[in-house]
Amino acid sequence: MFLFELLLLPIIIFIILSILILPFQFAFHSIINIITVPAQFIKIASNKKLRINHALEHSTINVLEKKYGYRGLAGYAKENGFVIRGKVHPTHLENAAIIGLDKLNQGYNELAIHKRCGTSMLAANFTSAVIFILLLWQTGMFSIFNIFVAILLSQFVGPTTGKILQKFITTSTDVSYIDITGIDYNANNIVGILGFNFKTAPNEFFVRTHRINEIEIMT
Question: Of 4, 52, 95, 174, which has fewest CB within 10 angstroms of its CB?
Fold first, then answer.
């Protein structure tokens, strides 16, 4: 019995210290989020190529999910296209990208919004950080309760805020002069396990986009 208590003591001490340190750690991360998250939004908002490709990424994933039934896909935008991660048939992906582009051109702007976008997570993190700092300023207490309230409120506010930010800041549906030029991926995706190499289906694709100049359209 004594040996069990002796072994249990370090665990109890660790848990108590973790609980005591957690509010300070959360405060530190909150300050970091308040500083860095707006900078990330500004970076995207000031780059129209990223915003356009971000919208195309979302529209492509939305089409893949609704038309082909894919789930668990992710992606991110680059200036010359966007990346899709997940087990997707290349033909389905190319078709979805073209359909997504056509739909945006037809005015289906809701396709540029996706509920699992990282923007929503950033919005939730930023919201929880602001709420926690405000509670800290009002109460003057580093407490678990303040963390709980901040996280709880951010879960309600974050998704809605994320959609608003996607619509007005991180995406652009001005795709009238955009063309899908192709898809790049590694057809021979090799995974090594315990010294053995296995060929697997590709799970990362780069969809190339190109802005059509008015001269190209006229010719």
Answer: 4
Dihedral angle of Cα 89, 90, 94, 97, to the nearest 10 degrees? 60
Inter-residue contact 47 to 170 (CB < 8 Å): no
pTM: 0.79
Spell out the residues 6+ positions from residue 6 whose beta carbon is closer than 8 angstroms to its own: none
- CB contact set of 101 (below 8 Å; sequence gap of 6+): 56, 59, 175, 178, 179, 180
Q: What is the mean pLDDT of the chain?
A: 83
Query: In angstroms, what CA-CA distances link 200 with 58, 64, 139, 197?
Result: 25, 21, 55, 10
Decide: 172 and 55 in contact? Cβ < 8 Å.
yes
R_g of the chain computed on alpha carbons: 23
178 beta partners: 211
Both ends of the chain: CA-CA distance in Å? Answer: 88
**pLDDT tens column, 28-59:** 677 787 788 888 889 899 999 999 999 999 99
Compute CA distances 49 → 77, 116, 212, whole Å: 9, 21, 13
Q: What is the rounded CA–CA span in Å between residue 93 and residue 205?
A: 9
Query: What 3-state DSSP class applies to 213?
Result: coil
Closest by CA to 83, choosing from 195, 204, 209, is: 204
Residue (of 36, 39, 111, 116) closest to 76 by Cα position: 116
